[in-house]
Amino acid sequence: MSDSQKAMLSTISCFVFMAIGFVMERFSIPFYQLIFAIAILSGGAKQTIEGLTDTFENKTLNVDLLMALAAIGAAIIGNWFEGAMLIFIFSLSGALEEYTTNKSKKEIASLMQLQPETALRLAADGTTTEVDVATLQIGDLVLVPKGASIPIDGEMIKGFSTIDEAAISGESIPVEKTSGDMLFGGTINLGNAITLKVTTKSDDTLFAKIIQLVNEAQSTPSQTASFIEKIENIYVKAVLIIIPLMIFIPYLFLGWSFYESFYRGMVLLVVASPCALVASATPATLAAISNGARNGVLFKGGIYLENLAALKAIAFDKTGTLTNGTPVVTNFTFTTTSQEQQQEAIDILLTIEGTSTHPLATAITSRFKAEHQRVISDIEIKDVTGFGLEGIIQNDSWKVGKEGFLEGSAFSETIKQEVVQWQNEGKTVIYLAKNDTILGYFGLLDVPKPEAAAAIAYFKQEGIHTTMITGDHYATAKVIGDALEIDEIHADFLPENKTTLINQQKETYEINAMVGDGINDAPALANASIGIAMGGGTDIAMDVADMVLMQNDLEKLQMSHMMSKKLKRIVLQNIIFSASIIFILILSNLFQVINLPLGVVGHEGSTILVILNGLRMLKTISVHPTHTSSIHKSKKQFA
C-alpha cells in the first residue's frame, strides 16, 4: 500500500469514528469519549510520531507537533468533537499533500516501468539469449522485436523502423530510424524487428540519466521552500512560548475564567500553526517539475525552476541551438537556359554528391533529389581532399566544390555579383562546372530553427536581454542574429571567451542563462546562473547544465519560463493567502469572536486550498507565437 493510500485510509478511519462519536454524544450514549479518542489516534498517530521523531532526531519543531498538542488540549477541556475534527481535517490536508507528491512523482514511476530489465542478446550464429540488461557490454548485438521496448542505448545496424521516443523527448510523434541512427533505451519499437549495437552501459544511458535528474530535482527544494522550512522551527518555538502567555495573562490580569483562557489558548494553538504557509511552495514546485518532465524539460532542482522567473539575460550558442546544425540550400542558379542541359547537370550533380557524406553534399542531394531522373553509371568519381569532388564522363570533367577548386573557370560579372551578395549573407557557395564552364552555383546556410524567432521575440518582449555567442565567422553570425533580431552578437569566440562573457553578464544582470549543446559550451553552461543544455547535445553539456531541453525545442524553453512565472505567482498567492488567514484567525481569537470548530475549519481549510492551488502547476502551459512579424521575416529570408 502506498503512502498516499495509507494517509487516505487513516483519514477515512478518523472521519468514521468522529461521526460515530458525534452521534453517541448527541444521544448521551456512554463512552463516546473513547470513540473520539480512537478517531484522534487513527487520524493523528502518524503525524504525531513524525513530529516527535523530527524533534528528538533533528532537534527541530514542526506543525505536526502543534496539531497533536491542540487536539490533546481540546480533549482535556472536554471538546472531544473539536479535537477529533481538528485531527480529521489536518489528516485530510496531509493525505492531499501526499497525493500531490505522488501525482508529481508519477513521471518517475511511469519511466521506471518503461525501463526494460531484460534484453535479447544476439549471438554470431543468429541465435538469441534473454539476459539481464545490466549484463550487456559495449559492442554486444541486441535484437529488438516489433512492439518491444529498446533495452539500452545503441546504434541501429540493421533494419528500418519507427520508434516512439515520447519517454525521452516528450514528443508524441514517432521518429523514423534507419541503419546508423542512435536508439535510446526506454523508447518503443513500433515497426519491424531491428538489431542494435550497444554503445553505452545500462547505468549510463540517456534514460537512466533522465530518471536520475527528475529524482534529484524533486528532492532539491526551491529557495522559497528552503526559507519556509528554516523559519518553521523558529515559528513553532514562538507559538509554544506565546500559548502559555495567552492562557495565563487573561486568567490572571483580565478576569477571564481558566476554562476560557485555556480554551482561547487551544484555539490560538490551532489557528497560529503555519500548516498552510509550510505547504505554500513545495507541492506547487513538485507539480511544476513533473509537468516539465512530462513535456521533455528536465530541471536538476527546484531552485533553477524558481530562478528562471527572475531571468534578466539569456545567451544562445548558434549552431545546433538557434540553428538546425546542418546546412540547407537557400539559393541556387543554373547558367544554362536549356531544360535538357539543366536536367543533365542535376543528374550528374546528384550522382557525384551522392557518393559523399559531407554535410554540404547531403544538403544538395536533399534539395534536388525530387528532380533527379537518372543515375549516371559510366562516371569515374574522385575525391580531391579539401577542395571537392570530380567526375569524369567520356573525357568531360565535372567538378563540384568551392571557388578554389575551379581554377581556370570563367566567372562572369553576373555570377561574381550574386556570389558576393550570398557570401555577405554568410552563405557558403558551391559551384558545378563542366570543363571549366560554370553551369550552376548554390548558396548554403545553417538556417534558424522554425521556433527560434518566436523564442527570441518572447524573451525580448519579457524585457530579457538576448545574446548570440558562436565560434563561427561574424558575417554568418550577423545574418542569423539580425534575422532573429537578437540584441547582441559575438562571433569568432573560443570556449574561454564564452565563459568570460557569461561571467560578465552574470555580474551585470545577476540572473543570467546560457543555452548550448556542445563540449565548447560546457564551461559557459557551468558558469551561468542557469545552464540550459539541448538534449541532442554532448553528454558533458547535459551533465554540467541545470536544466535540459530533451527535444532540442526552444519552444520548450519559452514554456519553461512561462511555467516558472506561473509558479512564482502561485507561491506568492499561497504565502499571502495563508499569512492573511493566520492573522485574521489570531485577531478573531483575541477578540473572542471565533470558536475552536471555526478555527479548525479556517486553518485547515486554508491549507487544503493552498495545496489545491499548487496542483494547478500540473496543467500543461500552451505557448503562443509572439512577434509574428519577426517570425515571418526570418522564414522569408531563409526560404
Summarize, please.
The protein is α+β, with helices and mostly antiparallel strands.
Provide an overview of this structure.
There is one protein chain. The chain is of the alpha+beta class. Among the domains are: about 135-200, Calcium-transporting ATPase, cytoplasmic transduction domain A, CATH 2.70.150; about 305-325 and about 450-545, Rossmann fold, CATH 3.40.50.1000; about 330-445, Calcium-transporting ATPase, cytoplasmic domain N (3-Layer(aba) Sandwich), CATH 3.40.1110. About 55% of the residues lie in helices and about 15% in strands. The protein contains 24 helices and 22 strands. Strands 10-22-21-20-11-18-19 form a seven-stranded mixed β-sheet, sandwiched between helices. Strands 2-1-3-9-4-7 form a six-stranded antiparallel β-sheet, with no helix packed on it. β21, α21 and β22 form a beta-alpha-beta unit. The longest helix is centred in the C-terminal third of the chain and has 37 residues, at about 555-590. The model is unreliable at about 625-630 (pLDDT under 50).
Distance between the termini: 58 Å
State the total count of DSSP E strands.
22
Q: Are there runs of 5+ residues with pLDDT below 50, and where?
A: 627-632
Structural class: alpha+beta
Q: What is the architecture of the domain at 303-325 and 449-545 at the second tier of CATH?
A: 3-Layer(aba) Sandwich
The CATH class name of the domain at 303-325 and 449-545 reads Alpha Beta
Q: Could you tell me the CATH topology label of the domain at 303-325 and 449-545.
A: Rossmann fold
Shape: elongated
Mean of residue pLDDT values: 84
β-strand percent reads 15-25%
Across the major sheet, the strand order is 10-22-21-20-11-18-19
Radius of gyration: 33 Å
Largest sheet: 7 strands, mixed
CATH H level, superfamily name of the domain at 303-325 and 449-545: HAD superfamily/HAD-like
Q: What share of residues is helical?
A: 40-55%
- The tally of helices reads 24
Membrane topology: Multi-pass membrane protein
Organism: Enterococcus sulfureus ATCC 49903
Subcellular location: Cell membrane
Protein name: Cadmium-translocating P-type ATPase
